[in-house]
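Example record for the data management plan.
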Amino acid sequence: MKRNGLILMIALCLCLALRAEEGMYPLSEIHKLDLEARGFAIASGELYNPGGVSLIDGIINLGGCTASFVSPDGLILTNYHCAFGAIQSLSTTDSDYLRDGFHAADCRAELPARRYTARLIESYRDVSREVLAAAGKRMSPDERGQAIEEKIKTMVAAVEKANPGRRAEVAEMFRGKSYVLFIYNNIKDVRLVYAPPRAIGEYGGEEDNWMWPRHTGDFAFMRAYVAPDGRSADYSPQNVPFRPKKYLAIAPQGVQAGDFVFALGYPGSTHRNDSSHYLAFEEEVRLPFAIEVWRWLIDLKGKMSRSDRATAIKLSSSLQGLWNNVKRSEGQLKGLKNLGLANKRRRQEEELRRFIGADPGRRKKYGDLFTRLDQSYEAMGRRARRDLTLSNLVSSRVSMMLGNAFAICEASFERIKADTRREAPYMDRNFDLTEKRMTQALRDYHEPAEKAVLGEMLRRAAALPRENEIAAVRALVGAGDPDKAIAAFLDKAFAATTLKNAAAVSALLKKTTAELRSLEDPLIQLAITLYPEYREMKDAEKRQKAVLDPLLARLVDARKEFLGTDFVPDANGTLRLTHGRVRGYSPADAVEMQPFTTLAGIAEKDAAHPGSENHGAPARFLELARSREHGGYAHPQLGDVPVAMLYDMDTTGGNSGSPVFNARGGLVGLNFDRVYEATINDFAWDQSYSRSIGVDIRFILWFLDKYSGATRLLTEMGANR
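Corresponding structural encoding:
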């Protein structure tokens, strides 16, 4: 018992020491924090004030990224890579905004970004009691999972009916334990205003991605529009700029090394409260599988992109996402292995097991916890490779053609169900969005790439061992040569399919299963034969979640008892606060990274990489950088304009585009990345190596002023010199 007490004291001390910096705090936690002690020079009500106006009213969820209002006329600042989909979809060989950048002379010249919506949080409330009340004590895991899912969907539908034009979401904060209902104002007309050339917005390319030192001008501007009466509306020339309750104030003086900074944003997901089983699964199964597939796709699409500019534009958005995912995943895999994180978590769980075993009451509550976790993950591991293969085969992110065929097939099964029993994409509230996503994606259809990708995924599926085979693929290839059978299928399928046509896709989404079965479209027929196995897989995943959720809820409770303290829920796409300081780090022995890069560094990189695809800033930009025309934007100690900066805030995917504030709430930067060592942040945070990267506000202002002459934007933001 003495040893357990000592362990508890050490764990508690470590926890308290880390809480000074680690943490993505949800809205419900902000008022509990001693902000002044942490370095803030503003009160909690200035951060979040449910009864008034606060900084949070200026923060936006923009298609999975974060963004912010920076003017009273709905001007939005976000990352270049977050706006990339809009820039790419608007680009042609004649108007190549990817290569040349985009600068609207006035509001009339701003272009619709049709794949984008801007979400502003309006309110939230804890609904844990209501959600969990739907699950009866005598229910099986399947029944429990179904009851909770239906309760959430019913709740969301009721809230949206009572609040026309708003979107509602229920977020699971601690799995199986706590749930929060968020209501958002959902603005559907978003337009592109300004983007630098890609040679600036992605300077350094994939070579520098997730690395430091970084010199990337990863920023862009968009604007939110609404109907003249202020309601959210689809794009129309009659729409007017949205007037936000709050827009952020630019702090053109920026920050210096050691200064306190904080960010507000929508981090995607972290897994710090998961068990060692999850970490082992990521290290041994999912990450290696994903990296292998993504690397193959990058190689294929990269080669095709070099054939001509039109192809490069079509494939650029897909390639950007693939490169970003694969490098992050490689960093995570390296971190998991180098840190031995799964084993560390196992050792922590062994201490927790002993803590549980030392007390009869704890044994009664938690005694079977780890045995049941072992069993659940063992079952998942047995089917993992088949499930991953099948999921990728029918994903539109891998194969647009089969992915769309499969969505059409799935819609025919789902749309006949009661609305709250449907899969989310096919519910009434989402169905128009699903159709729009599928039809708009066809703009990037490139048949040689589609054919090659689907062929490769079918070959991988056909190569699965008999005990894990996908029956529909086995039937397609038959007993002969799989390569010949797949090649023959592809030739026939791509010659016969109507899925290349947006109007045909829209029409097919409304057809019944019987009507689809009568069609002579090989891709539709393959999707129909794949559907039963996919449905079986999804049902197994739902059963797995229904079993795991209460186990993980108990794991959280056991850890709280062991540590004697609460801790922050994992990130889950909801608004969070994080804070830290501007500081460098040491990634290796005798290597010391400084927290700022400068214009001079871009000129140095360009000179060191002549002819590089990654390092090739525009000639006029280099002239300005070398002429030292700083225009009052220089860092006082560096004597140069800072481009990017480092800070030890706790961020992850989804924090891209998060505004970086000084202690007084002034906008000093724009978060866009982490260093390579910090890709492991999703699983563990450490002050020694967890660093995030942002564009310095002084570079953004300098570039608008000196390179683009974008005085309209500077004036609108109140940032003229």
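Summary line stored alongside the record: The chain has 28 helices and 21 strands.
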